[in-house]
Design a protein that fits this description.
heterodimer; A: 394 residues; alpha+beta; MetI-like fold; four-stranded antiparallel β-sheet; two-stranded antiparallel ribbon; 11 helices; B: 418 residues; mainly alpha; 4 domains; globular
């Protein structure tokens, strides 16, 4: 090695040209810069807070909130701030989870419709996707809230739909299932049915493995479970659930479930907006499986449903799931636009807390932490689903 | 058999009484191209049969869709032509356009429009294609504006814009050598436009008076122009092989992406004065900072997707021919990476454009803010549907033309690859 070094150059590299030293040095300087920035911000913050006469602590969470929250779990204005914040979190979760289900259904429906051989259906689906994708969500929320839900008839002139559903300007009233004493017995039936279903599933799986043939593994388990559940439903002395129907009493409806106008508008807007994005994801996921794959599957004698289950879906699901996850996360985050129409979600309640106490920094930290936990949980669940579906198949 | 073997001489081998038939058959075959196929195999009937009524369930679906469309259109058109009071739109058009921008300073906005007309015209002349189509749309809109029943001065401004665009279009025609200069001019126009709109000191227009579509566009353009390089920078940091830089960048990106934009805008509005007590940062600037920092994190993830798609060999080859890190990235890796993620980046731009509407919640009067304030005006009570639909159409036109442009660029680049 020494012989290869040209004359006049010593074999040892000076440290200011040694890449290993430089790398460490550069990172140390960078980190110092970041820390310096944070320290400056921190001292500024302390100075600013002193100017406002505030101290940084979380004691205020145990104080009486004193403001009302229009919906959610039971809550009184005399409850503490922590409870109010919890109500906000649960409201966000409620609208997000129902919204995710509705948006997925809409997205699947219109995504498949965009691939239809029927020109009219295809065009309607394209119009839906383009119209709702290209208009801001906040505008859509305000539109649904003021121009649609806000214009509904008054309570006396409610629109009555089949099965005891009433729609008026105070919200949407639905029948709600109320558990009875028979529920426990029925739950026992369900447990037994589930056990039977698991056994049948494993037996069929084994059999299919022995035969070395593709097939629908839940072919025996699913009907068995349904039969046991149905028998249980009718054999139980009282039915496990009774329907609590909304009834007009005086000036308002009593009983049943109520979706407030704010909740309804937010839910419709979120589902329709996110559904348009999901439709595009579903369409491109299915289109990404080349036509030859289907034709080959049909040529080797697989049926239409087997082609879908064994050839198309296994290839398109891994493509669909990651963007679908980020759409679910977007929907959860977008539910924060509820603040514009007064639905008491996490951000809306947090804002009230901030204006009342002035403790903006801790409240912001709590809001951020809540959303981060929700995002990480959703991502983890979807990643797990993706791995599971790839492992077990359909 | 004999007839077949010496058939080279025409119909010699065919018995005489059959020859006439053969000649007729040949004549029919010769004229075949001129005979049209029966009507039921082509044309609109066939199209309907193939596309709407090819199977029993498609017949059902088509009928259902037709019934749905009939009632939807009937309802919509009846409402739009008999019940809707569209008078609210022309009465507030200036408010929708520029918000509370002072009337005597409106020439600033027109100057900006003229600067853009010149640049669009020149670019359309030099590049043609997509830019030309956009220029023609711009001319069309200005022309309609010029013919609409506005005040005389407004119509004059509109027609002047048409003339400016057309003249610069012809000036720019064929001068492909000037392309780099025009790109530079576009970059320079950005600060220039800001200065023209703001003016100086007391004589200028305070940013708190910016509003309407003008504010929406400014927020979107600033967000796009600043967040793009910031996003590329963050993506490079996240791909860096220096762990400290990678960690800090990853933490920033993941934290911002985990939080809704409205929270970040509230933070910008409330926390910037706490963290920077000495600085007087106005509300518009705070929103710009919030939108930019938010969008940069998403941009970084899009760019990272492109960077990960570049094979290692490209980096190694660049190093082998002696390029340093900056050269490798700028000349080899980024051009390929960015090209492959154009759709995602434009998608992000569209999202940013739509997201600027959130500043209406914070209290700025952008396009959506104007819509809300018009509805709140007792003179226009109960006209939510009309006003929101109008705002929605404006947002739609901008978003849709961006996605259309992205599609065109994508196709053009793919053509280049082959």
């Amino acid at each position: 090695m020494k012989n290869n070094t040209p004359k006049g150059v010593s074999g040892k590299i000076p440290f200011w040209r040694d890449i290993r030293v430089l790398r460490v040095l550069f990172q140390v300087i960078f980190l110092l810069g970041v820390i310096l920035l944070l320290v400056i911000l921190y001292t500024n913050m302390l100075k600013g807070l002193r100017g406002l006469g505030l101290t940084l602590n979380l004691d205020f969470l145990q104080d009486e909130a004193g403001f009302d929250i229009s919906e959610g779990i039971p809550y009184e204005p005399s409850d503490v701030y922590l409870k109010a914040f919890w109500v906000g979190i649960l409201n966000t979760l409620k609208v997000s989870i129902i919204g995710i289900v509705c948006a997925t259904l809409l997205g699947l429906l219109f995504g498949i419709a965009r691939l239809s051989s029927n020109w009219l259906i295809r065009t309607i689906a394209t119009a839906y996707v383009e119209c709702f994708r290209n208009v801001p969500l906040l505008l859509q929320i305000l539109f649904w809230y003021t121009a649609v839900v806000g214009q509904l008839p008054r309570v006396r002139e409610s629109i009555a739909l089949f099965g005891g559903v009433f729609i008026n300007n105070r919200g949407i009233y639905l029948p709600s299932p109320e558990p009875t004493s028979g529920l426990k017995i029925w739950l026992g039936f369900l447990g037994a049915g589930f056990l039977l279903a698991v056994i049948l599933y494993v037996v069929r799986w084994r059999k299919l493995q022995q035969l070395d043939r593709p097939g629908f593994r839940a072919k025996w388990a699913l009907p068995a479970f349904l039969i046991v559940a149905l028998c249980g439903w009718f054999l139980t002395p009282d039915r496990p659930f009774t329907l609590d129907l909304p009834v007009l009493q005086g000036f308002n409806f009593k009983g049943g479930m109520r979706f407030s106008p704010e909740f309804s508008a937010l839910l419709i807007a979120l589902s329709v907006y996110t559904g348009a994005f999901i439709a595009e994801i579903v369409r491109s996921g299915i289109q990404s499986v080349v036509k030859g794959q289907r034709e080959a599957a049909r040529a080797v004698g697989l049926s239409e449903s087997q082609t879908l289950r064994l050839i198309v879906l296994p290839q398109s699901i891994p493509i669909i799931v990651p963007p679908l996850t980020s759409q679910y996360l977007n929907l959860t985050k977008n539910s924060s636009l509820a603040v514009a129409i007064g639905f008491p979600d996490l951000v809306s309640v947090g804002n009230t807390m901030m204006t009342q106490t002035g403790q903006s920094i801790p409240v912001f930290a709590m809001i951020m932490a809540s959303y981060l936990v929700m995002s990480l949980t959703t991502s983890a669940a979807m990643n797990w689903y993706n791995r599971w579906i790839n492992r077990v198949g359909f | 058999m004999v007839a077949c073997n010496n058939g080279a001489g025409g119909y010699k081998g065919i018995p005489f009484n059959r020859q006439k038939t053969v000649v007729n058959a040949l004549r029919i075959i010769k004229n075949m191209q001129e005979i049209k196929p029966p009507a039921h195999t082509t044309g609109s009937v066939r199209w309907l049969k193939d596309n709407l009524f090819n199977t029993w369930y498609n017949v059902l679906l088509s009928c259902l869709a037709l019934i749905f469309l009939f009632f939807a259109f009937k309802g919509l058109l009846t409402w739009a032509f008999t019940e809707a009071k569209w008078g609210v739109i022309p009465a507030n058009l200036q408010l929708f356009g520029v918000g509370a921008y002072p009337r005597e300073q409106i020439w600033r906005v027109w100057s900006v429009i003229y600067i853009l007309c010149v640049l669009v015209g020149l670019s359309a002349g030099m590049w043609g294609g997509l830019t030309l189509r956009f220029a023609l749309v711009l001319v069309g809109i200005c022309f309609i504006g010029g013919l609409s029943p506005f005040e005389l001065s407004t119509r004059g401004w509109f027609l002047g814009a048409v003339a400016t665009t057309v003249v610069s279009l012809f000036l720019g025609r064929g001068r492909t050598g000037l392309r780099p200069w025009i790109l530079g001019a576009w970059l320079l126009s950005f600060p220039l436009i800001m200065i023209v709109l703001r003016g100086f000191g007391e004589n200028g227009v305070l940013t708190s008076n910016w509003g309407g579509l003008l504010l929406t566009l400014i927020l979107a353009v600033v967000g796009i122009v600043v967040s793009f390089p910031l996003g590329v920078f963050l993506a490079l940091c996240r791909q860096s092989n220096l762990p400290a830089i990678r960690w800090v960048s990853t933490a920033y990106i993941e934290m911002v992406r985990g939080v809704p934009l409205i929270t970040i805008l509230f933070m910008g509005s409330i926390l910037i004065p706490i963290f920077m007590p000495g600085l007087d940062i106005n509300q518009v600037l705070r929103m710009m900072i919030g939108i930019t920092f938010f969008s940069a994190a998403y941009m970084a993830e899009n760019v990272r997707g492109g960077l990960q798609g570049i094979p290692r060999g490209q980096h190694e080859a660049a190093q082998a021919i002696g390029l340093n890190y900056a050269q490798t990235m700028l000349l080899i890796v980024l051009p390929q990476a960015l090209r492959s993620v154009i759709p995602a980046i434009v998608g992000q731009f569209i999202a940013l454009f739509k997201d600027t509407s959130l500043v209406a919640i914070i209290g700025l009067i952008d396009l959506l803010g104007v819509a809300r304030s018009v509805i709140a005006n007792p003179d226009w009570f109960g006209l939510q549907a009309e006003v929101y639909l109008f705002a929605a159409i404006i947002y739609f036109v901008f978003s849709y033309s961006m996605s259309y442009g992205s599609q065109e660029i994508e196709d053009a680049l793919r053509v280049g690859e082959i």
